[in-house]
Amino acid sequence: SEDAPMTKVQSMKSMKSMKESDADSDADSLLTESEDEEDEEIEEEIKTRQQLLDLASVQKEKVLDVIAKDMKCDQSSIRIIAVIGSTTFFNSASQSLCQEIGRRLAALPDSYVLVTGGFKGVGATIARAFHDVRVMDNRPTGVYMVLPEYESNITNFREKAPVREGTDQFREWEFGSTIFIGRSVKEREVLMGVMPVLVLVEGGPGAAHEATIASLAGRCVLPVKATGGAASGMRGGFVPHDFQNLLEDISPDSKAAWATINGPELNVKDICSSLTTLVQLVRG
């Protein structure tokens, strides 16, 4: 009959429509599954980060306990200055700046101690200068290098820190005190991030990670912007938070000091003076 071809066409159109509908449904289903997976990944990342922060807080208490026993004082009187940055200098002026930072910070009262992540470069240079001044003045050195108890990828760090040959363990530095805590460099980075105040000079992805953790944890990061790297927002994506409001709540004198460390000029004398002012404003 004449209706038969139409019925066939209609049937084909109906099948096509059903297939398109099924395809749209499958696409929607895939999109929903993708969004669910993304949400789960974000939730897992947040959970993992919180677990690391909780662990770091516990580890920080252990570090404070070691320092208090070494300095023969109460934990409440200890003022930690943490320093982070590049393991090798890429700015020719940074090494002399770090040496002067160490000397200037060492002149602060004995309650101020210096904590580094145990690597060469910025941390070791500031720590060595700080240590030498304290020794010369016959005062407690107050220098502590924090390293993990072991690191499964130790070969990646042999050029960055002292390592025990033939093992997956770091060894003690030849000056100051070395505190071994944690199970990886990643854990140590998070631990550094929960210190009350961090001085950041240059810095690659590792320092950027420590600075980012510090920002998320509400700690104060003092980046010397003119040295480049993570301190200027490069090499790892860390964009220094503006802690000016935080500092102004404590002291109006911080405004000029903050402007100096965030300025384009690498004036060693002014930067060291400003850092010394700022670290004294932060407690935690």
List the helices and strands and how they pair.
Layout: H1 3-71, E1 79-85, H2 94-106, E2 112-116, H3 122-136, E3 143-147, E4 177-180, H4 185-193, E5 197-201, H5 205-216, E6 220-224, H6 244-250, H7 254-261, H8 268-279
Parallel strand pairs: 1-2, 1-5, 2-3, 3-4, 5-6
Main sheet summary: 6 strands, parallel
Shape: globular
Count of DSSP H/I helices: 8
Order of helices and strands: HEHEHEEHEHEHHH
Find the count of extended strands (DSSP E, 2+ residues): 6
Distance between the termini: 91 Å
Q: Strand order across the biggest sheet?
A: 4-3-2-1-5-6
Strand content: 5-15%
Instruction: Decide which structural class fits the backbone.
Output: alpha/beta
Mean pLDDT: 84
Percent helix, as a range, is 40-55%
- Given as residue ranges, the uncertain stretches (5+ residues, pLDDT < 50) are 1-6
- Cα gyration radius (Å): 27 Å
Summarize the structure.
This protein is an alpha/beta fold and 284 residues long. Helix content is 51%, strand content 11%.
Q: What key attributes describe this structure?
A:
single chain, disordered N terminus, 6 strands, 284 residues, 8 helices, alpha/beta, globular, six-stranded parallel beta sheet
Give an overview of the whole structure.
Helix content is 51%, strand content 11%. It contains 8 helices and 6 strands. It has a 6-stranded parallel sheet with strand order 4-3-2-1-5-6, sandwiched between helices. Strand 2 (112-116), helix 3 and strand 3 (143-147) form a beta-alpha-beta unit. Helix 1 (3-71) crosses helix 4 (185-193), helix 2 (94-106) runs parallel beside helix 3 and helix 4 (185-193) packs across helix 5 (205-216).
